[in-house]
Amino acid sequence: MKRREFLITTTLGAGATVVLQGRGHQEERLIPLLVSEERLVPGVEYWTASVCRQCPAGCGIVVKTMFGEATTTVDDQTVRVKRRQAKKIEGNPDHPLNRGRLCARGQAGLQVLYNPDRLRGPLKRTGPRGSDQYVEITWEEAIRLLVERLQQLRQRRQAHALVFLTGRLPRHMRLLVERFMRAYGSPNHITYELFDDTVERRANKLTMGREALATYDLARARYVLSFGAPFLETWRSPVYYSLGFGSLRQGRPGVRGKLVHAEPRFSLTAASADEWLPINPGTEGALAMGLAGVIIEEKLFDRAFIERHTRGFQAFRQLVREEYSPEPVSEITGIPAETIVRLAREFARHRPSLALGGGAAAAQTNGLFNLIAIQALNALMGNLGRPGGLSFTPDPPFQEFPPVPETPQTRESLRQPRLDRVGETASIATFIERWRSGQPYAVDTLFLYEANPLFALPSALGVREALQNVPFIVSFSSFKDESTAWADLILPDHTYLESWWDEVPEPGAGRPAVGLAQPVVKPLYDTRSTPDVLLQAARSVGEDMRAALPWERFEDLLKDAYRGLHRAVGGGGDFDRFWEEVLKNGGWWASDDQRPSPVGYVEPQTFDFSPALSHRRQPAFAGDERTYPFHLYIYPSIAFFDGRGANQPWLQEMPDPMTTVAWGSWVEMHPRTAERLGVSEGDRVWIESPHGRIQAPVVLFPGARPDTINVPVGQGHRAYGRYARNRGANPVHLLAPLVEPASGGLAWAATRVKVTKSPERGRLVTVGYTRVHTEAERR
Amino acid sequence: MGDKAGSLTTNMMHEDLIRPLILTGRRFYLVVAVLGAIVLWGLAAWGYQVRTGMGVAGINSPVFWGVYIATYIFFIGISNAGTLISAMLRLSHAGWRHPVTRCAEAITVFALMVGGMFPLIHLGRVWKFYWLIPYPNERGLWPNFHSPLVWDFMAINTYLLGSFVYLYLPMLPDLALIRDRVAGWRRRFYGLLALGWSGTPVEWHRLEKAISILAVVIIPVAVSMHSVVAWDFSVALKPMWHSTIFAPYFVVGALFSGIAILMVAMVILRRVFHLEAYLEPIHFNNLGLLLLTFCFLWLYFTFAEYLVTWYGHLPDEMAAFRFKVEGPLAPFFWGMVLMNFVIPVPILAMRKTRTVTGCLVASLSILVGMWLERYLIVVGTLSRPRLEFAWGHYAPTWVEISILMGTVAYFILLYVLFSKIFPIISIWEFKQGRRLRAQKPAGDVPVMANEPFPGVM
Amino acid sequence: MAKWGMVIDLDRCTGCEACVIACHAENNLPIVGEEESAKGRQHNWIRIERYWEGEYPHIRARFIPVLCQQCDHAPCEPVCPVYATYHNPEGLNAQVYNRCIGTRFCANNCPYTVRVFNWFDHQWERPLDEQLNPDVSIRTRGMMEKCTFCVQRIRRARHQAEDEGRDIRDGEVQPACVQSCPTEAMVFGDLDDPDSRASQRARSRRAFRLLEELGTEPSVIYLKEDEWVEP
Ligand SMILES: Nc1nc2c(c(=O)[nH]1)N[C@H]1C(S)=C(S)[C@@H](COP(=O)(O)OP(=O)(O)OC[C@H]3O[C@@H](n4cnc5c(=O)[nH]c(N)nc54)[C@H](O)[C@@H]3O)O[C@H]1N2
Ligand SMILES: Nc1nc2c(c(=O)[nH]1)N[C@H]1C(S)=C(S)[C@@H](COP(=O)(O)OP(=O)(O)OC[C@H]3O[C@@H](n4cnc5c(=O)[nH]c(N)nc54)[C@H](O)[C@@H]3O)O[C@H]1N2
Ligand code: SF4
Ligand code: SF4
Ligand code: SF4
Ligand code: SF4
Ligand code: SF4
Predict the structure, then answer these.
(1) Which member of A67, A146, A370, A647 has the greatest number of CB atoms within 10 A?
(2) By mean pLDDT, which of A128-132, A476-480, B329-333 is the weakest?
(3) What is the per-residue DSSP string for C111-167?
(4) 10 Å Cβ neighbour count for B338?
């Protein structure tokens, strides 16, 4: 039952600013757009639907706003202003991905909007790079500087030397940036995330023909084997998978599903599992092969599916028979042979059973093999497209825009090789290396958007040197993060609660869906929506760009894109009504019973086993075992994800569920390891890899492998506002620049380290009583 | 016994006991200045705490009470010394009591005044303290009479009132005596305080009667007060608080520390005012024996308390038990055993060491030991709540220590000022005791036999 | 009058702490910072307790969200000298901030250690203060506070139901923590209504109450099954 019934049929005027009349109480109003603030009734809550952007999952949200008073500073004078204020974010109960639920980061989104360290207007660098000397400028000047730069670059026939480095952008923003770069004439829109998904996409492409992220239907499974991915915390779509997990466990009368989790660290996901396998790093694929071996040997697989829908099964069977019988697999993975046999039988007998791989399993030099082997388990169970299995979520049928027209000049510069790509494989490592070396050509202007490479990329890649040598950096960040602090021009974006944007969640919820975000409150400061800035710049750079990007504002682009959706699914009626409806609902999604929906579901039809043979590799680790005796296991923090949440005090103060640490970094160490090293809880240690060293306090962690050191990612900022700055350590800087060679994905789980006690004293804030008990205390 | 006292002339006695009220040495000013400075410092710390918030103290979750409440019990405990001891001595006609009662009763009043401050000091919103008082108000809001804190409030105030009267009434003849022997403003001052006492037989009769009634009434009040303090803890559902013997245990502890502080006070007064002739080794010997008895009583209660907990071995109780006996508070626990038993018992048991100095050492040791016991009771239990995740620990901050020192100094200061203004030994009672002893040197006589009362001289 | 209760399914709960942040956002809980966090003075009305069991590699961690259990026989209530914490007709253990004088006796006597004291006045760095929920008052130094079952939400729902001349519907009131919980581990509702989802879940054979043996009669019911057994 929904808390708020805001799907209320209403009559809406054509104008954009309309108050929806709630069927129920007047407090239960949902307003799709900014109502002029004088019309708000004090004390009444208004709810606006939008989308969460604290991680790439794309959960639907509704934001409670109320009319309120605020103290603010205008022209150095403190004044009281009355304005609409955002009070609470909740899950959008109708959004199929998160069905009203949110994770902790989603809840904390208001501290992005109201963060005291937001950039308040455009800035121009005055001192030397990194000196943090800036002057405030007007938007007119800012955009003039931007346009001049772009024009100059074109004049020098160097359009390709513009690099747009972004995180994984939401749906139409990505489209806009791509069109912008195409129209401008640069092939270099480069996307990266520290915890990226290239390896998964490649594995799915090779086995199932879809370069996409699969959606795993935990809710209807009875048995789940997961490898490496902390899917209940941070991985891909934590809320969706948490819902699935809840349902797997206790959602169906009489059915209690089982979760078995293989990961080198006892993560929160492992803690929720019924069984944890502390697998040797990088051997997830071998374990999957071992399980497949037992299943095949005992003929427990889905014969019909294998016969009708797969290729390469015979060779695969041959391989697992020869090389992956339980004993050798036990040897490789560290999991007892009996366990392997038992799990294989359980897995095959309690269907629907699901195998799910990612995270650390993918972040190895043999990550692709690992994921292919794990997907093979799904093929053996015939899981493709079945309830309790995996599927791919199609893109909703948006309006296709005409291709960007090429001019002779853009044709020429677009022919230049993309800096991150060699042949099929794009890799951020390749990009940084080429960027640093200036080969085959130098980067002239760098745009940074939702990307903070100085923090979130291993320094061993040489990001710092590369960044130092770019003549011109423009950052569109809302905050002065590490990389933004090096920018020549800062054009701060609105935060996500003040902007227009949309997101097609991937992996989705198993049905076509898009979440549409609209401004929930008026922008607090003199910031500007980056898509709008790009559109404005495009108009000024040249006529050709204006033609390719004809929209006045990003909102117009979105509206045009949704016309296609309206045509495909709108069921008649005029577009404006449809648009209002979409705004009110916070997006559009096929309803649950529309299966197949008007837009059709795309489900993988065939599975190819042969890549398991062709991509088979052993994991390789950086750092020799003698000097660097420990595996380093970094993992995205449940509070900060890849570090972007570290400027939000709610998240800083949130005790880490496993260790109860707040406000800092820590190193997880097995109690025996700690004893061997002569350190106890709270002592500081140096962790040193061949590429760097960091210091952090020790937490005794009974779920750590004795040969592995776990460090969360997220802290260790050297900029990024008062809450994040100079707090803890960033383990990313320990990483060796290793990649999975076939896909280009960063192998962030493949570095070895050594650990030494540090004489320095520091603080470890644990909120709960967490000490691991000694035998005596258990008496 | 009482040879020295026997040789005192009335004049010498007046000289000894009244001179200090009139002549003031530099030492006095020095002592008052030092104590005053510490009190002011403590006051400043308290002001800082009120203004900034309780957070400036070391208390936290789960240790919501700390030094303040421990010291509160401690002071309430020593407040039992005076009135209770003096009343018991009176009722049991202990012949050696006469020089002791006044300085004991004064301890009660001041310890209560100081101890009673702690519940206020520890209030998060002390400016609303009067909500504890049952006063008629237009909103019909009353305090919650189910709450032991309200019982506390009542019990302490009752005892304070009773003790004050019990201190003041027997002082009337002395005040009158002084009034008649001094001049100037002092005469007016003491005259006012003497309430027109003229020493008629009727007055004497009434006084004696009032004193005997008070002595009977004050004992249950004192016992109940410290029982109520114990119930603050034992009515709570807390491991190692929820104990049936807490009330008697607290009362025994109170008397224990009460006698100890009384002895310390006596030693100091004896030295400072040269009262060797009044406070004789016999007094120390007798009180020392009493103290020795209490060492064993205390040990018995402590043993009973801890044995049952250990034997029952309930996990929640054991967490608190271990925390105290072998955990972070172990030094406090074993320190307490050392101070309350191991050190004082040999000293007090042997005639040879049961000297004035011996008694002083034993008493000081017991005072520290009893404070530690209070600290262990409060902090030991609170550090180990039932849900293990909420376990915590506590260390006092400079604010708590400053306030603690300030209140101790305040207590001493009050005592110093009192002994400066009032005769710390009850002159008439002392005289009376001497006379009784002179008449029947073989032993004690029933007090206040139907003899003429010593008049004002 | 409803008898409000909450059922928390520990088989679902992953310990993700979404409920903790949701409660912060809803109830104007202050951020105390690193120093104060280290002293055990965080303002969490709900906390996720984690307990280790077993030894590596057969290690297990158990999570249990602990909030005020809204005890029917609440040990915190009788000890309050000024009735600042009392039982309201809906069975809620209510906390009257303005009446509290800050003895902290209730916090000591709460067997679940869920009461939170305001050791200081709190500041919200501008403009973080714009987020503050006007339905919930800000507490000042020296006051005790704790989970209220989001009483302001109950009130809103009640007013709305009254306006519409009906009873509160099952599921209409969702405290912030329940609302957020990504695994749907928590259900809130009227335990007097046998058909409410909360009542239904509470009747599970997996149900138990925390420290039940103390006779506090909590309104929070936990569900927990031990291990997966091969069906
Ligand atoms: N604009 C405006 N401002 C005013 C006034 C006005 O008329 N207009 N009036 C002023 C006056 S006279 C007053 S008295 C104040 C009142 O100001 P407040 O006392 O701050 O406001 P209330 O809305 O009465 O309630 C406070 C909170 O108590 C919660 N609550 C309700 N029941 C319980 C309970 O059992 N336990 C707990 N813990 N919380 C509960 C409510 O949900 C609400 O969040 O406002 C003053 N401010
Ligand atoms: N339903 C509901 N009822 C409530 C409350 C609630 O929260 N909900 N809150 C209760 C509370 S806490 C309070 S304090 C009361 C408040 O209830 P009232 O005391 O009735 O308060 P007001 O509504 O502010 O009305 C005061 C009147 O005084 C007038 N006035 C203003 N200034 C002056 C002046 O200088 N002189 C004179 N003579 N008149 C003046 C105003 O115009 C107004 O008519 O309401 C109580 N009743
Ligand atoms: S998973 Fe959490 S952070 Fe990510 S989009 Fe959903 S609510 Fe936001
Ligand atoms: S939000 Fe739900 S799953 Fe997460 S910790 Fe709270 S109760 Fe558990
Ligand atoms: S859980 Fe604690 S605070 Fe809540 S009602 Fe029970 S005793 Fe009171
Ligand atoms: S802290 Fe407040 S609510 Fe708790 S007992 Fe004291 S006065 Fe009552
Ligand atoms: S019910 Fe409300 S107040 Fe209580 S823990 Fe949940 S969100 Fe916080």
Answers:
(1) A370
(2) A128-132
(3) TT---EE--S-----TTGGGG--TTSPPP-TT-EE---S-HHHHHHHHHHHHHTTSP
(4) 15
Write down which residue in A516, A533, A560 finishes a domain.
A560
A612 assigned to some structural domain = no
- Residue-level pLDDT at B437: 64
Does the pLDDT value for residue B2 go beyond 60?
Answer: no
Residue A772 contacts B, CB cutoff 8 Å: no
Provide ipTM, 2 decimals.
Answer: 0.90
Query: What is the structure's pLDDT at B8?
Result: 63
> Checking phi first, is residue A764 left (phi over 0); if not, alpha (psi -120 to 50) or beta?
beta
Interface touch C113/B60, C-beta < 8 Å: no
Taking a C-beta distance cutoff of 8 angstroms, is the pair A488, A372 a contact? no
Residue A294's CB is within 10 A of a number of other CB atoms, namely 23
Task: Tell whether the model's pLDDT for residue A28 goes beyond 70.
Answer: no
Assess C62–B contact: CB distance below 8 Å, yes or no.
no
What kind and span of H or E run contains A46? strand A46-51
Residue C140, ligand 1, Cβ within 6 A: no
Mean pLDDT of the residues in chain A: 90
- Read off the pLDDT of each residue in C189-198 and give the average, rounded to a whole number: 95
Chain C contact probe: residue of A52, A234, A765, A778 with most C CBs at under 10 A: A765
CA B352 – CA A415 distance, rounded (Å): 108
Domain assignment present for B243: yes
Poorest-pLDDT segment among A1-5, A595-599, B31-35, C51-55: A1-5
Mutate to test the interface with B, among C62, C95, C101, C114 (most CBs of B within 10 A): C101
Contact state of B391 with A769 under an 8 Å Cβ cutoff: yes
- Chain A: nearest CA to B324, how far in angstroms? 14
B390 and A768: CB-CB below 8 Å?
Answer: yes
Contact flag C142-B53 (C-beta cutoff 8 Å) = yes
Q: Which domain holds residue A286?
A: 215-391
List the structure tokens of A409: 């000049």
Same domain, A383 and A433: no
CATH number at residue A255: 3.40.228.10
Binned at pLDDT 50, 70 and 90, residue B212 comes out as confident
User: Chain A window 665-684: which residues touch C at a Cβ cutoff of 8 Å?
Assistant: 670
For residue A101, report the distance from its CA to the centre of ligand 4, in Å: 11
Identify whether residues A160 and A295 lie together within a single domain.
no
Asked if pLDDT for residue A286 goes beyond 80, the answer is yes
Which residues make beta-bridge pairs with A515? Answer: A503, A587
Residues A320 and A437 in one domain: no
Domain shared by A256 and A386, yes or no: yes
CA distance B124 to chain C (A): 4
Q: For residue C85, what are the β-bridge partners?
A: C95
In a domain, residue B12? The reply is no
Ligand 3 midpoint to CA A636 (Å): 14
pLDDT-wise least confident of A131-145, A664-678, B17-31: B17-31
The residue segments making up the domain with residue B274 are 25-125+145-169+218-437
Q: Which residue of A has its CA nearest to C41?
A: A767
Give the nearest chain B residue to C48 (CA atoms). B389
DSSP assignment letter at A498: G
Cβ B78 vs Cβ B159: under 8 Å: no
Of C66, C79, C142, the CB nearest to B147: C79
User: C125-175: per-residue pLDDT in tens?
Assistant: 999 999 999 999 999 999 999 999 999 999 999 999 999 999 999 999 999
All domains of chain C, ordered by start, with CATH? 4-223 (3.30.70.20)
**Last residue of a domain, which of A113, A131, A155?**
A113
CATH number of A10's domain: 2.20.25.90
C41 touching chain B per CB within 8 A = yes
**Cβ distance of C50 and B235 shorter than 8 Å:** no
Contact A587, A60 (CB under 8 A): yes
Residue of chain C whose Cα is closest to the Cα of A262 = C57
Question: What number of CA atoms fall less than 13 Å from residue A461's CA on the CB side?
Answer: 28
Kindly state if the Cβ of A52 falls inside 6 Å of ligand 3: yes
